Amino acid sequence: MTEVSFHFNAPDKLAYACRFARKAMRHGMRLVVTGRASDLQALDRMMWNIGPTDFVAHAVAQGDPDVVHASPVLLAADPMQVAPRDMLLNLGEHIPSGFEQFQRVVEVVSATDEEDRQGARHRWRQYKAQGYEIVRHDLVLKDNA
Question: What are the helix (H) ranges across 27-104?
Fold first, then answer.
């Protein structure tokens, strides 16, 4: 069964996603990041500009098929249109269709956006209703530890 985790209290969801993708890539994981098209475009720009020593090799799902296949990190508005990978990072408002094809799903939740936090609570209940055990990661506690 897919492991579902919620990473709460992200001060900046896109910056967190960028760091998460870099860490996943360094650990040899193949990651799909999903969310609104505008967020994925902004994340794409961030990943190109993160710095020469922190570059995150990535591609957009609609890109060159050879590049998409070779990239450890893939940005996809619809994760169902890409081959399954190890992990799915959801920046979106809804549970992505086909999430169960991934070994892990990570939901990122804003520290300050109350609408995002309410949406996360709703997704949490939906996962629970489907029988998923959820792992909770409070990013504030992690930063202070």
Answer: 37-49, 65-70
